[in-house]
Amino acid sequence: MKRDSRLSGVLHVLLHMAEIDGPATSESLADMMQTNPVVIRRILAGLRNQGLVRSEKGHGGGWRLAKDLESVTLYDIHIALGSPGVLALGHRTEAPGCLIEQAVNNAMGEAFNAAEALLLARFREITLASLSRDFHQRMQVCTGSDHTS
């Protein structure tokens, strides 16, 4: 089963945007992410609808963060992406007629729900600011400086 990497990708884009002084174009962000600018525009449009980013039109325009990094959590971004499922595991059959499979689904469903609730609670605690601080600490260790490459 293919993993959904949109949250990871969006976090990457947002942290790059935080490092840029001024608006970032879809083209420059797409280059950083090795994807098509249309993909970036589609993703950022969803984040704009949630008030996380804003776009500026015209020459010198592009995308900017609309909120302070400390006020945006992974949970906020997860919601802006449409609350995709966070687990790749699932039931073999959603509505089984077999009583054994019903028992299996019940036990697995309870475990899935508990795991998802725990993960989403953790997402509420992690801010973009904490990720940015981690990045800057890593940069200092690697290069002795505090700048992106």
Shape: elongated
Domain count: the total is: 1
Strand order of the largest sheet: 1-2
Q: Can you give the helix content as a percent range?
A: 55-70%
Global Rg: 19 Å
CATH superfamily: Winged helix-like DNA-binding domain superfamily/Winged helix DNA-binding domain
- Estimate what percentage of residues fall within beta strands: 5-15%
CA distance, first residue to last residue: 34 Å
Q: In terms of per-residue confidence, which ranges show pLDDT below 50 for 5 or more consecutive residues?
A: none
Mean pLDDT comes to 90
Number of helices: 6
Q: CATH topology, which one? A: Arc Repressor Mutant, subunit A
Succession of helices and strands:
HHHEEHHH
CATH class: Mainly Alpha
Q: For the report, how would you describe the main beta sheet?
A: 2 strands, antiparallel
Query: What would you say the CATH architecture is?
Result: Orthogonal Bundle
Please, what is the oligomeric state? Answer: single chain
Number of strands: 2
Protein name: Rrf2 family transcriptional regulator
Pfam families: Rrf2 (PF02082)
Short description:
InterPro entries: Tscrpt_reg_Rrf2, WH-like_DNA-bd_sf, WH_DNA-bd_sf. With 149 residues, the chain is mostly helical.
